[in-house]
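User: Hey, my collaborator sent me this sequence without any context and asked if I could get a structure. I don't really work with proteins. Can you help?
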Amino acid sequence: MKALYKSAIIVTIFSVAERFLGFIYRIFLSRNLGAEGVGVYQVALSVFGVLITITASGIPITVSRLIIKNKATNNKNSVNQTISSGIFMAIAFSLPITLIFVSLEKKLEFVFSDTRCLQVLLIIMPTLVINSIYAVIRGSFWGDKSFFTYALIEFLEELVMLVCGIMLILHAKDTFDGVKKASVAVLVSYLFSFTLSIIVLAFKKVKPASPFPQLKPLISSAMPITAMRTTTSIISSLIAIILPARLIAGGLSSASAMASYGEVSGMAMPLLFMPSSLIGSIALVLVPELSESFYKGKNKALAINVQKALKYSILIACLIIPIFISLGPLIGETVYSNLNAGKYLSYSAVMMLPMSINLITTSMLNSINCEKKTLLYYFIGESGLILSIYFLPKFLGANALILGYYFSFTISSILNLILLEKKCKEKIGYKKFLIFGSVFILPSSLLGVFLKNILILKLPNILVLAICCLVVVLFNLLFYFVFDFIDIKMFFKKRNFAKRNYQNATHH
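Assistant: No problem. I've predicted the 3D structure and written it out in structure-token form, which is a compact way to encode the shape of the chain:
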């Protein structure tokens, strides 16, 4: 378990550093390209993101799981076959799409309201194939538990984009030339990460092998994940169309409807989803651990790891929810200068609990060959979201989107938990932790509101936020200590501090 926590810490550190570089780069782009330039750049990248989702989103975790399975069954020859099969599948899906976009450039202009977006997309399009291949290599790193290699390459890719983008955009002739140069920086960064991953693969002495023996199991497992993630992208686009239309039908003006949609979807939700990177780190390093335990029939080890991951995810959510409930309006005013966005953040805060459980359980189930089930549960949950944004905006306004997400995450997480308990064949002790963690949210939130109302009279907003966040988290943690969910003695063992930090949620 020590290696597991170490890997999670490494991935988390690199992930946070990568996101920080991305944040700095977005500030640079907004100041140098303006709202119009950033809009063109973002639309092109969004379309490219959808294409990557279609061609390769299900491959990494499937390649990882199959590698672990083959190693667990001492079928080492199949490891190279799995990687070759993944590369074959990635090229088979991505190359035709690339050729269609490149060869039918003029006929695809109808896809964009601004044809400049297509010009920018075509600069990046050649990397669709190499990105799809890199997804396979990334999955092989996960299967080998080479998390440092994976995290370092991802970080360096972001760094190369930042440096290259700044150097090119500063010499741009006009706004659109700057947008095209920004897309060239994306191209260069993708080429860099692909080349570096190929070099690492060569050092690992991975040899080409026949892709066909592993092609069928790879397609069978990857397609449900790809379908789920592609559907997520499509549903996000549908929400952007349906919700404003239903708000207008409910009596709002077009401008008010778009403003409400922007406040809840463009401002509140990104903040709500930020902590998912912490849960994503533990989910990433758990994939090979769970797959290995599952295929070797180690039911007890499987149940223990599932229990630890669930408690970790619950703890992260329950520590942050009181902050958003009590300080949401202040966060909205401070970050966005928008009180409504902060109110939406408060209303949706509790959603973090089912969202976190859904995220970690879906990842764990996908790692033990339950991709088809998670896809079914996903569709069941999303049906609640679609029905909510269609029928409820007339009564709830933009809050219909929040309620829809509550339906979606809650339904999916419950179904996932039921299936996990069946697959583990051992008792998973998380329910008491979940119940008490949920109860601790109320007093912590009340303290946050009380403290904010006192401090706001004397201190600036940013200082009030800092003090309240710290006090609320510490007060919340105190309940976990008092009720013996966390062993306080661990915090005084300096030597094991880093490891123990990740064991907080797993005592008992």
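In plain terms: The first helix runs from residue 2 to 56. You can pass these tokens on to your collaborator as they are.
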